[in-house]
Amino acid sequence: MQRIYEPENLMEGELLQGMLASEGIEAHLVGRDLVGGSGELPIFGLLGLSVDNDQADYARELITAYNTALPLSGDEPESFPGTLVC
Prior knowledge:
Layout: E1 2-5, H1 10-22, E2 28-30, E3 48-51, H2 56-68
Antiparallel strand pairs: 1-3, 2-3
């Protein structure tokens, strides 16, 4: 197992875990149960996504592609041009 990414928060971690699962990569969200103690634990490095060694490179590529993705031109709502509304 390799720790390949440190999400900023639990929601990002779970979203990326689901995205990797949709590509056939089993990812483990390490530190999920420690988030409740964030007032008493260090904030940084608490969460981490870990995958099997043989899938680490592909998982990193997918996360990089996700983080650098931009909305397609023309997909923005007319009331908010240039803004992606989820």
